[in-house]
Structures are given as C-alpha cells and as structure tokens.
Design goal:
heterodimer; A: 115 residues; mainly beta; four-stranded antiparallel β-sheet; 0% helix; B: 111 residues; five-stranded antiparallel β-sheet
C-alpha cells in the first residue's frame, strides 16, 4: 500500500520568505509526527498530532513554526520568515496511533534550503 | 544524561563479520523499543521491533535488558548493503511525544 508521502521533495527559498511543507500519512494512521534533521545530525522532534489535535508542540523551535492537521489526515508545517538555520530535511512520520508498540513509518522528507 | 545513547562509530568491518551495537536508555518506564536504519540522505526505515524475550530476523538479532536498560543489535555475516546508520528508538508509552531517537551508530561494511 501507499506509504507516507511528502511534498515538495526539495524547496529552495530566500531568507525571510514563508514556506509550507505537506505530509500525507498512511491511510488509517491517526498519529503524525514532524521531525527535522540537519546534515549529519540526529532527528529533532518538532510536533506530534493525535487526530487533528496537537497534544505536544514542545519541539517547535520558535513561534515562526506552526503546523496543522485537517480531517485527521494531511498535515502542513509552515515556517514563516525563514532563516538560514532553518535549512534541514523535514521528515514526517505516521503510526497507527500514539500508543506504545506502534512503530513509525517515515516519508522521504522535504529538503529545505534557505539562501 | 541523554535519554537514549549510542556509540556514534563509525564501525568499519569487513564483509562477513559479525558486529554488535549497544544502546542505553535512561527512562525505566520505557515500554517499547525499535531499531531503525537510515541510509545516507534517506529517511529512517524500521528494521525491527525489540521484544523482551529477544527476537531474530534473518541475520539480525535484537535483545533487550530491562534491568540494565540497554538494547543490542547483532548483525551476522554482514553485507555491503548493511552499511548505514542504525538508530535506536525508545517509546515511553502513553499518548504524546513518546518516541525518542538515539543519535545513531554508523556502520561501514568494507569489501
């Protein structure tokens, strides 16, 4: 079946512009996660959705970052007034639900470059 | 102390070697455990879940020691295609941000 998909796969933007990244989770998965990964670094948790609500936004690095999820499916991560330090790969993952034992499946990521 | 710790490596081993990775976690309430692999410039992919009794999948064996709070991954008869970064992942249970990823151990299998 279809896995997690993300778009765009690559995004180059100028400093100060807003960007929107999209994630389509696996059908039927209620939990959705956003991470980012800088070159050569580990995964940095950003935000978690259970259904349409985000019980944990603790990882969002600043108020320039926001995310929403509608219909319990597609999620968008928005970065306003992008900075060069926002350059990274943004990964989305989904799992059946947010409970123990349900492994996460990752999308291919969006590579964001801020010039 | 970090929540999940791994030896960053790199581990450089010849083809056919057996290699073992360890991972330690700090939260004794952790409830489930996984190994993921991540190829260069790709997303992490689930390798295997880790069960209390230990489990094996082909050349890969995972073990869990709750008392000592560590997880291990053993790769036998390593192949060139096993070259990747191996991520230890711990799930704390309950709803919320409950997956904690280790920094990963890099493996290079050499011809």
């Amino acid at each position: 079946g279809a896995g997690v998909s993300q778009s765009p796969s690559n995004k180059v933007t100028e400093k100060g512009k807003d960007v929107e990244l999209r994630c389509d989770p696996i059908s039927g998965h209620t939990a959705l996660y956003w991470y980012r990964q800088s070159l050569g670094q580990g995964l940095e948790f950003l935000i978690y959705f259970q259904g349409n609500s985000a019980p944990d936004k603790s990882g969002l690095p600043s108020d320039r970052f926001s995310a929403e999820r509608t219909g319990g499916s597609v999620s968008t991560l928005t970065i306003q007034r992008t900075q060069q330090e926002d350059s990274a790969v943004y990964l989305c993952a989904s799992s059946l639900d947010g409970t123990t034992g349900n492994e996460q499946y990752f999308g291919p990521g969006t590579r964001l470059t801020v010039t | 102390r970090k929540e999940v710790e791994q030896d960053p490596g790199p581990f450089n081993v010849p083809e056919g070697a057996t290699v073992a990775f360890n991972c330690t976690y700090s939260n004794s309430a952790s409830q489930s455990f996984f190994w993921y692999r991540q190829d260069c410039r790709k997303e992490p992919k689930l390798l295997m879940s880790v069960y209390s009794s230990g489990n094996e999948d082909g050349r890969f064996t995972a073990q869990l020691n709750r008392a000592s709070q560590y997880i291990s991954l053993l790769i036998r008869d390593s192949k060139l295609s096993d070259s990747a970064t191996y991520l230890c992942v711990v799930n704390l249970g309950n709803y919320g941000q409950n997956f904690v990823f280790g920094p990963g151990t890099r493996l290079s299998v050499l011809p």
